[in-house]
Amino acid sequence: MSMSVSWSAASGKTACLIEDGNVSWTSDIGPEGGGAGGFPDPHQLLDSALGACTVLTLQLYAKRKAIPLEAVRVIISHQEEPGLYQLQRNIHLEGHLTEAQRADLLRVANKCPIHKVLSGQIVLTTEVI
Asked: pTM (2 decimals)?
């Protein structure tokens, strides 16, 4: 699986186009770096991947297990230090849930695919073509 991320100086902007099959979206540098500020920056995209995956995983699991989950809100924050990118995920669950169901949903949140990727070893290879 691959996606394309592109930019052209002719655009006169800093924003880049991200395309994956039939889906496309845009990312940009924040205003402090000279960008327009109308699109998420790469850190926001990374953080939002964890939040979106958590919400989608919990909603599907609750539906499959008939758990009365009415709404999920995930708040993601991060801190950066040299060699460390620390994510904090706060999950707000709404519905008439037992403590056992809440604990089960937390267990499932920690198994969402993006959580697993970010918790595992990531290997990057790069070549200029």
From this structure: 0.91
